[in-house]
Design goal:
This protein is α/β, with parallel strands linked by helices. The chain is built from 10 helices and 24 strands. The protein has 2 domains: 30-73 and 80-134 and 278-358, FAD/NAD(P)-binding domain (3-Layer(bba) Sandwich); 136-217 and 225-276, FAD/NAD(P)-binding domain. Residues 18-27 have low confidence and may be disordered.
């Protein structure tokens, strides 16, 4: 009887070990994670995944370009504080971390087949992360596409950097063309920087005017903070016109017409373009009628359990029906959560993290000073967001953030 017992126990141990190793092999079989988009969110996702997963699994980063440019520095490029080389790095720089770079434009996503179609071939995935960003639409306003000066793309910023130093004087109109645009502080950042640029050169015949359809600047930061921003603009001689929705642009006469029937003239027009979803996504099953990808705001998972989306191609609603701003800091923080959760799911761990909604903005106010707005964007804005007065520390904080990003992630 003792021998039978020993044999029984031995067989049970063998079955357990066989089961354990089979399960382990199944859990740890090589997975392929494809990341669409080489912006802030895509790069952070790739690097964080590699950190958590080690070298066993494939991580493929897809982008149509060969180089990454740090978009938060585009305005510094415009005013001559940066050269294009200083804020540009090749994607090949992250291949040393075992991340595959696949240069191609994405054409379609087929969740049911777990594959992505690109101009250079098809990629199959086990997990997909969509961080493709959003389009800038300059055609929503009649006449606007003939008069585009902006800084939302690298090429636009380079062109504007040639215009600003030789502008002979007059009115610079910075016009927000829609309620929905990327990086909400951008028009105010631009206004402050340009005012400082010309003041330092002793050029006094430049007037800067900001027009926005908002009822208050950056409404989502709360009425008290919005009022503080208005006062700051006034202190710097920048005129702000709220509740001005642009309807037409006459480039021949340099005339702007707004929905409130007000007309005004400009000498240099800088537009903040409307933000629109990518066409390839609007045709997919991952989006709603809005064209944006709907995700769980805490883990960035889509309706497909193996697909995550983060950054500007998503739609996340928070307090009072207001949408989470489209900004790099949120893409960065979301990417860390997505990478952590995918990695732990692959490894068979139950640990998960949740996106808190925390974020911050720096707004340059000139003279090497900046404002900092920070807090949790998922709670009541009047209670959660803090706006600090302009100081040198926040300006250098933005400089350090730029340097850290380019050193840390690429």
């Amino acid at each position: 009887m003792l021998n039978h017992t020993k044999v029984f126990i031995k067989n049970q141990i063998i079955r357990f070990l066989q089961s354990y190793f089979v399960d382990s092999i199944n859990i740890m079989a090589q997975k392929t994670i494809v990341i669409l988009g080489g912006g802030i969110g895509g790069i952070v996702t790739a690097r964080e995944l590699r950190k958590h997963l080690g070298t066993q699994h494939r991580i493929i980063l897809v982008d149509k370009n060969a180089y990454h440019t740090f978009q938060p520095s585009y305005l510094w490029l415009v005013v001559g504080w940066r050269t294009h080389a200083a804020i540009t790095k090749p994607y090949s720089a992250i291949e040393k971390y075992g991340i595959e770079i696949f240069q191609a434009a994405v054409q379609n996503i087929y969740p049911e087949h777990r594959k992505v179609e690109t101009e250079n071939g098809t990629l199959k995935y086990d997990y997909l992360v969509i961080a493709l960003g959003a389009d800038s639409d300059s055609q929503i306003i009649p006449g606007l596409d003939n008069t585009v000066n902006s800084f939302y793309t690298f090429e636009e910023a380079v062109e504007l950097s040639k215009i600003i130093p030789v502008f002979s004087g007059g009115t610079i109109a910075i016009v927000v063309t829609s309620d929905n645009y990327k990086y909400p502080p951008a028009p105010y950042d631009a206004g402050f920087l340009l005012a400082s640029f010309y003041a330092k050169r002793g050029i006094t015949n430049v007037k800067i005017k900001i027009y926005t359809p908002e009822k208050q600047p950056l409404e989502f930061i709360g009425p008290e903070n919005s009022h503080t921003l208005e006062m700051l603009l006034k202190t710097h001689g920048i005129e702000l016109f709220t509740d001005h929705k642009l309807t037409t642009v006459e480039s021949s006469t340099k005339t702007l017409t707004f929905a409130n029937s007000i007309k005004t003239n400009y000498d240099l027009l800088i537009t903040i373009p409307a933000c629109s979803p990518l066409k390839l996504l609007t045709n997919s099953k991952l989006t709603t009628n809005s064209g944006w990808i709907e995700v769980d705001k805490y883990n960035m998972r889509t309706s497909d359990q193996n697909i995550y989306a983060l950054g500007d191609n998503t739609r996340i609603e928070f307090d009072r029906g207001i949408l989470l701003p489209k900004a790099g800091i949120f893409a960065n923080n979301q990417a860390e959560i997505v990478a952590y959760n995918i990695a732990h799911e692959i490894m068979g761990n139950t640990q998960r993290k949740a996106f808190s909604g925390y974020g911050f903005f720096f707004i340059e106010t000139g003279n090497s000073r900046a404002v900092n707005i920070h807090g949790n964007f998922f709670t009541k804005q009047s209670q959660s967001l803090t706006m600090n007065e302009p100081n040198v520390t926040f300006h250098w904080g933005k400089v350090v953030l730029e340097r850290y990003w380019l050193w840390r992630w690429l």
